[in-house]
């Protein structure tokens, strides 16, 4: 059983350096040599990464199973295959995304030529969490490599098997001079954060996000924060409740609820909630059978500490279904609980992001009360609305703020490569996926050139005549 306390304190890097500081120096040397800039290098790295993921799928799936009890299918759909699709999309469009773009020049500056070019930033640090330890390490890396950067990757020590397999495979498949992996926990990450990077891409909780931001400020390094929080799901009275229940169960209990965009809690009117309850119970049984502990498709909690945190959230008197756990296997049954008063500080399930297989149900008066509840809290990473009404959809689009708004389906928006993925406010800063990733890991440089002859700048230089002033 993995524990959060595991800190391998190893420095496994792809480039033969030693301590994190040496790794960053090696990565910078590679970037400064210019090796990462040609498109051919970028394509070769992405293709090598694709080969690694496809050929070593089983090895990676075994590590994910060891860390999180993920089924091989879930591992492919949400991790390995997810990154493969991101690579394919990026390879298909890389030429267009990295091409210089002409910009119109005002007549007063003719015959000048203006364009914007995307240039790589330099050395990018990617710090990843444990819940999707392949996807969240490699998807940002795809963007960073596609944009021509050197990369230092810090996988999460809380998923140690996946961290080890990624370190080993990246070292053997990618350019070891420019792609580095530093394994380890807080001490290694702290040492990394003392170095100067050109961009830091952090995915994880907000408390560490603040540490990252403070460290980055010392070097004026730009930061992307992919954070979490409570993502609500509002079920309107007109929703198709049967499909809603099935999709909520899928969204909530994938990876045993350890998904940053999992529906954290459900809001609905009392009658809708009562109608939804038996459908949720049935959908759980449909997905995982009478005893989810025996389902190969149901994952485990990452560590004993997180299991204890989650079981403490479950008040047996409020359980609609589930609630059983087994500490020896880090198992927590898919659980639905009822909330009496969402604003009562004693309601522990409503205080913080649950990040596990516990789904609270909150009754509200109606649409206005639901929107008030949502907007009175931190801006969520995802907001879900289940409805057949365009008016309800429009209301949420206009009157709420969230990283993403998804209608009638959780999680799936991540798989639309053209949609930027990121939070707002407490759920994060910045976004990535597809072209947005290439943009994120590039500097958009303005280039302007004006021929010297004929010299057309006379009108802007002193001495100013009244005629000139009028032109200006
Ligand atoms: P975690 O414990 O694995 O931590 C994330 C990373 O931060 C790890 O690499 C870890 O080594 C590093 N870290 C931990 N403590 C540190 C410290 N004191 N100093 C420097 N680095 C440190 O993962 P987690 O934070 O428990 O991840 C879960 C959170 O991440 C949830 O809130 C979830 O919603 C969020 N999340 C967000 C996204 C997203 O894309 N927005 C995706 C997944 C998870």
The oligomerization state is single chain
Structural class: alpha/beta
Low-confidence stretches: 1-17
Give the overall silhouette: globular
Helix content: 40-55%
Number of strands: 20
Present as ligands are: nicotinamide-adenine-dinucleotide
Bin the strand percentage. 15-25%
> DSSP helix count?
15
Question: What would you report as the Rg, rounded to the nearest angstrom?
Answer: 25 Å
Specify the biggest β-sheet.
7 strands, mixed
Please give the alpha-carbon distance between the first and last residues: 72 Å
Average predicted local confidence, pLDDT: 94
Description:
The chain has 472 residues and is an alpha/beta fold. It has helices spanning 20-33, 39-55, 57-68, 72-98, 135-146, 160-173, 186-193, 206-218, 241-253, 270-288, 304-313, 367-375, 390-399, 435-440, 466-471; strands spanning 101-103, 113-120, 123-127, 150-154, 179-181, 199-203, 223-226, 232-235, 265-269, 319-321, 325-326, 331-332, 335-339, 358-364, 382-386, 404-407, 421-422, 428-429, 431-432, 442-449. Strands 10-13-14-9-8-15-16 form a seven-stranded mixed beta sheet, with helices on both faces. A six-stranded mixed beta sheet has the order 5-4-3-6-7-18, sandwiched between helices. The protein has a three-stranded antiparallel beta sheet with strand order 1-2-20. Helix 3 packs antiparallel against helix 6 (160-173). The longest helix is centred in the N-terminal third of the chain and has 27 residues, at 72-98. The chain is globular, with a radius of gyration of 25 Å. The structure holds nicotinamide-adenine-dinucleotide. Residues 127-131, 136, 154, 156-158, 185-186, 189-190, 203-205, 208, 211, 226-228, 260, 353, 355, 381, 423, 428 line the site of nicotinamide-adenine-dinucleotide.
């Amino acid at each position: 059983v993995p524990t959060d306390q595991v800190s391998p304190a190893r420095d496994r890097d792809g480039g033969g350096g030693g301590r994190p500081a040496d790794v960053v120096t090696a990565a910078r040397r590679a970037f400064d040599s210019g090796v990462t800039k040609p498109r051919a290098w970028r394509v070769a790295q992405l293709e090598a990464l694709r080969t690694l993921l496809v050929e070593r799928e089983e090895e990676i799936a075994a590590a994910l199973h060891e860390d999180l009890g993920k089924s091989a299918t879930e591992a492919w759909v949400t991790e390995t295959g997810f990154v493969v699709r991101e690579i394919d999309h990026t390879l298909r469009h890389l030429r267009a995304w990295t091409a210089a773009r002409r910009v119109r020049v005002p007549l007063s500056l003719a015959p000048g030529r203006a364009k914007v070019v995307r240039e790589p930033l330099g050395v990018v640090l990617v710090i990843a969490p444990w819940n999707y330890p392949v996807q969240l390490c490699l998807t940002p890396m795809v963007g960073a490599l596609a944009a021509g950067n050197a990369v230092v990757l810090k996988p999460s020590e809380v998923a140690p098997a996946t961290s080890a397999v990624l370190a080993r495979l990246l070292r053997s498949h990618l350019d070891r001079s420019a792609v580095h992996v530093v394994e380890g926990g807080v001490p290694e990450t702290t040492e990394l954060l003392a170095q100067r990077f050109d961009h830091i891409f952090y995915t994880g909780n907000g408390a560490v996000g603040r540490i990252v931001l403070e460290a980055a400020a010392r070097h004026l390094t730009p930061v992307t924060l992919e954070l979490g929080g409570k993502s609500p799901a509002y079920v309107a009275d007109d929703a198709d409740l049967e499909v809603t229940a099935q999709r909520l169960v899928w969204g909530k209990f994938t990876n045993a609820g350890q998904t940053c965009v999992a529906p954290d809690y459900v809001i609905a009117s009392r009658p809708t909630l009562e109608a939804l309850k038996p459908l949720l119970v049935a959908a759980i049984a449909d997905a995982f059978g009478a005893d989810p502990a025996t389902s190969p498709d149901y994952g485990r909690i990452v560590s004993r500490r997180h299991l204890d945190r989650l079981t403490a959230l479950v008040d047996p008197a409020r359980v609609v279904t589930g609630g059983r756990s087994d500490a020896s296997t880090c198992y927590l049954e898919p659980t639905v609980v009822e909330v009496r008063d969402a604003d009562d500080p004693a309601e522990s399930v409503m205080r913080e992001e649950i990040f596990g297989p516990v789904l609270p149900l909150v009754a509200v008066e109606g649409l206005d009360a639901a929107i008030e509840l949502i907007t009175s809290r931190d801006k969520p990473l995802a907001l879900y609305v289940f409805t057949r009404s365009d008016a309800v959809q429009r209301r949420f689009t206009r009157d709420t703020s969230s990283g993403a708004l998804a209608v009638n389906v959780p999680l799936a928006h991540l798989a639309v490569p053209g949609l930027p993925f990121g939070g707002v406010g407490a759920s994060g800063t910045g976004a990535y996926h597809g072209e947005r990733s290439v943009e994120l890991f590039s500097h958009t440089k303005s280039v302007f050139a004006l021929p010297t002859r004929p010299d057309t700048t006379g009108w802007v230089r002193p001495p100013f005549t009244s005629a000139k002033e009028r032109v200006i």
